[in-house]
Design brief:
single chain, 212 residues, alpha+beta, NADH Oxidase, four-stranded antiparallel sheet, two-stranded antiparallel ribbon, 6 strands, binds flavin mononucleotide
Length: 212
């Protein structure tokens, strides 16, 4: 029975973007309760985050991710601050979201100069993977609670300006801007993902390997 419920929630999770040019009134209710957020903490992680991310900070947990949570009123205010600077759907989602989570992961400091966003090490790959698992836990929890959700790359929400506005240290890397929307979408448009139905059968990505 537990397996059935879990399977149902995993399959039910779906990208839903609630889009409106007219801002929704900001609900005072907390959409992402602490219980929901705590689900993310139960994701597997292999190693503690590097000490440089922990020193002198209140956010000193060992997990290699951080979640910065904005309620509906803050989403609207962030939209106001960004008006005129962005014409993407991000603005239409800041107009409707009950909650936004800026989910970051914590790369180890590079030991040598690199052109990329972060040093291509096994440790960093594992930090990133762990942060991805934490995000998925939260999305599944939201889905099970009837909260529409969407994992976005972030667009303008990745910029140093927005990091600065939200007090996110620039050494952290945005893994996703997670939007959580109300069930009642008023006159808004709800967009889903074009890739959702492209997964195909197991045979496209699973090979059972036998060793003789
Ligand atoms: C790391 C990551 C970043 C994503 N960024 C975007 C994005 O910027 N825009 C978008 O439309 N979908 C984005 N998505 C959502 C995917 O497009 C979506 O999950 C996929 O198409 C499958 O659809 P489903 O979530 O409905 O199953 C992202 C997903 C992941 C895992």
């Amino acid at each position: 029975m537990r397996a059935e419920v879990l399977s149902e929630v995993i399959r039910e999770r779906c990208t839903e973007k609630v889009l409106s040019s007219e801002p929704f009134p900001a609900s005072a209710e907390t959409t992402l309760t602490d219980q929901l957020l705590e689900l993310a903490a139960w994701a597997p992680f292999h190693r503690p985050a590097d000490a440089t991310h922990l020193q002198g900070r209140e956010l000193a947990a060992v997990m290699p991710w951080r979640f910065y949570v904005l309620d509906a009123a803050s989403c609207r205010r962030l939209r106001d601050r960004l008006l005129g600077k962005d014409s993407s759907k991000i603005m239409e989602m800041l107009a409707t979201a009950d909650c936004l989570v800026q989910a970051t992961w914590l790369p180890n400091p590079a030991e040598y100069q690199t052109d990329g966003l972060f040093a291509p090490t096994l440790e960093n790959m594992e930090h990133l993977a762990a942060a991805g698992a934490a995000v998925q836990n939260l999305l599944l929890g939201a889905t099970a609670s009837g909260i529409r959700n969407y994992w976005s790359s972030g667009g303008i929400l990745r910029t140093p300006e927005v990091f600065d506005l939200l007090g996110i240290p620039p050494r952290e890397l945005l893994l996703g801007s997670l939007f959580f929307f109300p069930q009642d979408v008023r006159n808004a448009t709800v967009a889903t993902s074009k890739l959702r139905d492209k997964r195909g059968p197991l045979s496209g990505w699973v090979e059972r390997v036998s060793v003789r």
